[in-house]
Amino acid sequence: MNILFIAPYPLGQAPSQRFRFEQYLGMLTQRGHQWHLSPFLSMATWRILYKPGHTLAKATGIVAGFVRRVGLLFMVPRYDYVFIHREASPIGPPVFEWLIAKVLRKKIIYDFDDSIWLANTSEANKLVAGIKWHQKVDSICRWSYKVSCGNAYLHAYARQFNTQAIINPTTIDTERLHNRVRDQQAPGKLIIGWTGTHSTLKYLHQVVPVLARLEQEFDFEFRVISNQPPSLPLQSLVYQPWRKETEIADLLEFHVGLMPLEDDLWAQGKCAFKALQYMALGEPALVSPVGMNTEVVTDGVNGNICTTPLEWETALRRLLLDASLRAQMGAAARQTVEKRYSVLANNSTFLALFT
Predict the structure, then answer these.
(1) Res 121: pLDDT
(2) pLDDT, tens digit, 9 for 90 and up, residues 92-147
(3) Rounded to 5, what percent of the chain is helix, strand, coil?
(4) How far apart, in whole angstroms, are the C-alpha atoms of residue 285 and residue 154?
(5) pLDDT score, position 126
(6) Which residues in the chain show pLDDT less than 70?
(7) Half-sphere exposure of 263 toward its Cβ, with a 13 Å CA cutoff?
(8) Given this model, what pLDDT does residue 266 score?
(9) Residue 34, number of CB atoms within 10 A of its CB
(10) Helix axis angle, 273-280 to 323-340, nearest 10°
(11) What is the SS3 assignment for 268?
């Protein structure tokens, strides 16, 4: 096969791309297939995209992205499949997708792992929110050969427009990337951790009162790994900038990983990615019962499902006190990922998208 991957960001930079399809590219090459990745943004634009200012450079980068997309149309005929992750362009109607499907008559594999048909406005994207054209998701689903959905909620939505919608979970490479396990018995300060981008920092506010109570009783560190520092009234808070080069080593410092969410339509589309990262490294995941979290976490076995502040506090208290419980739940968490959410376990599902 000769496959064109169309994505928003440069290779190896964005978590959604890395864990949705980029980690399968080596497998495609090993099996004799050819592929090419075409990002909308250049590396230079990606580096300043979420930084304040640089308005002219950002606008220039967006225009350059559209120019590259026009040029890409002349390359499309040479490919057997066109895999589109989220969208061909970040703003405007789905012109490129329509041309690829209806004029060039190519088979589109449309992939998404969030409720991207909903507006999810933040300070970082509010200037372009009005021209994002969220309603294009329906049309792209209809025009696609197959739709690759990160969870059952996204699958149910896509099935309204395309019967060839398939659940293709976000997966973890347990052999080459998340290939180490946290030693829960090692001495040192206990670390409760959270990782995510600036847009999801808001979900932490619900656990702040719980952590504030616990830090009066226990000596632990609440470590936040993100691309922007949080503003939280906690004595235990330690901010660590996210770096791809040290991502796994940094996450291995956690004893317990948190994934609180608000129960809204946007969060229903979440694919439990944070929880899967913690679990793959042998760390119990404490999660809200939202989206795919309840499929991934079995309460009391490989983590805890927490709804109320009391449930969050009770679960954290038990894990802070009992290293053997952390080790037992961490081992079960790792096993869950290996069996159901690893690249190795999902290879056949991913390849089936192209048959």
Answers:
(1) 57
(2) 999 999 999 999 999 999 999 999 999 865 555 555 556 778 889 999 999 999 99
(3) 45, 15, 40
(4) 23
(5) 55
(6) 120-130
(7) 8
(8) 85
(9) 13
(10) 110
(11) helix
The answer to whether 346 touches 168, Cβ cutoff 8 Å, is yes
Task: State which amino acid sits at residue 24.
Answer: Y
Which residue is listed with tokens 């619900």? 206
Count, residues in the chain = 355
Residue 15 contacts residue 273 (beta carbons within 8 Å): yes
User: In this structure, what token pair is assigned to residue 350?
Assistant: 């991913």
Contact 234, 258 (CB under 8 A): no
At 198, list the tokens: 């600036």
Contact in structure between 82 and 100 (CB atoms under 8 Å)? yes
Q: What's the pLDDT at 264?
A: 87
- The DSSP code for 99 is I
List beta partners, residue 267. Answer: none
Q: Which two tokens stand for residue 175?
A: 């052999």
Say which DSSP state 89 is in.
S
Nearest to 240 by CA among 255, 225, 230, 254: 225
Q: What percent of the chain clears pLDDT 90, i.e. is strictly above it?
A: 88
Token readout for 75 is: 């390359």
pTM above 0.85, yes or no: yes
Query: Which residue type occupies 56?
Result: L
Q: CA 215, CA 184: separation in Å to the nearest integer? A: 20
Three-state DSSP at 249 gives: helix
What is the amino acid identity at position 305? I
